């Protein structure tokens, strides 16, 4: 159900965690506020088996919600054949759009790095077999992530660097392998000039907008729980950086999301 005014912009929040307990008590209201803000589609990303199941369940419950399934590097130590088989089954859901979020996280190292790399590589191979794009998490691990992606670039059906945290040179590397760059709330923070520089140099047809809610809340709500309605503030900041109208950013990022997730998104529409 889309309840936003007909003359409003149309946005897609390409990365949320509405499957987080922080939304347990008011999810209906959160979805309604998103629709009223012009958010036409919301992608809920899995990070382990249970959250992936929950993402699929939310996609069944709400017309505007879609899902991704996968095992985050934090939980890579649990990745085995049984988990992989479950991910394959979950990925067959008609509103599942991608495998993710997957990748490497060398900041927390909740899983050993060799386990992270093994789970990442296995899920890339899985996405290739299923002809699905991937949603990549990379924290303090950009060179290692890029090495893995380059080694499998010919087989990958596209993807996005979620919550991009690199510099302009790394952004060029991401663009060179055909990936999109996901921009979140930190682009609105005063200390994020490096990220704004990335937005400035990145072609508009390679940007996606996301909240990563309930985390990374943009200004002016920083410090509060994030939610999909706030993706508009990310789009507004990109418009300021690019010197373009908000409508242009909304239109381009929506088209980008539909292009990346084209197969399943069109089938499920």
Indicate the percent of residues in helices.
Answer: 40-55%
Can you count the beta strands? 8
Strand order of the largest sheet: 1-2-3-4-5-6-7-8
- Uncertain runs are 1-7
Structural class: alpha/beta
* CATH arch. level architecture: Alpha-Beta Barrel
Radius of gyration (CA) equals 17 Å
**Overall domain count:** 1
- Report the CATH C-level class: Alpha Beta
CATH homologous superfamily descriptor: Metal-dependent hydrolases
Secondary-structure element pattern, one letter each: EHEHEHEHEHEHEHEHHH
Shape: globular
Largest sheet: 8 strands, parallel
Mean pLDDT: 95
Question: Beta-strand level of the residues, as a percent range?
Answer: 15-25%
Distance linking N and C termini: 12 Å
CATH topology grouping? TIM Barrel
């Amino acid at each position: 159900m889309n309840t936003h005014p007909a003359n409003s912009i149309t946005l897609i929040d390409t990365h949320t965690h509405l499957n987080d307990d922080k939304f347990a008590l008011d999810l209906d209201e959160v979805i309604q506020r998103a629709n009223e803000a012009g958010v036409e589609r919301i992608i809920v990303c899995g990070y382990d088996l249970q959250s992936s199941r929950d993402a699929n369940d939310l996609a069944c419950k709400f017309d505007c919600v879609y899902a991704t399934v996968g095992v985050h590097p934090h939980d890579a130590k649990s990745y085995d054949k049984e988990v992989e088989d479950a991910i394959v089954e979950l990925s067959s859901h008609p509103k599942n759009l991608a495998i993710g979020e997957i990748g490497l996280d060398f900041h927390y190292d909740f899983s050993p790095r060799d386990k992270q790399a093994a789970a990442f590589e296995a899920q890339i191979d899985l996405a290739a077999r299923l002809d699905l794009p991937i949603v990549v998490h990379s924290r303090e691990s950009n060179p290692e992530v890029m090495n893995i992606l380059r080694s499998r670039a010919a087989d990958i059906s596209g993807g996005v660097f979620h919550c991009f945290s690199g510099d302009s040179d790394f952004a060029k590397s991401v663009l060179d392998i055909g990936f999109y760059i996901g921009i979140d709330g930190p682009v609105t923070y005063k200390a994020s000039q490096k990220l704004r520089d990335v937005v400035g140099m990145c072609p508009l047809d390679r940007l996606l907008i996301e909240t990563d809610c309930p985390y990374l809340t943009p200004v002016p709500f920083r410090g509060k729980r994030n939610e999909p309605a706030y993706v508009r503030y990310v789009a507004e900041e990109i418009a300021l950086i690019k010197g373009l109208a908000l409508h242009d950013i909304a239109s381009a990022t929506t088209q980008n999301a539909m292009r990346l997730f084209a197969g399943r998104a069109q089938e499920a529409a």
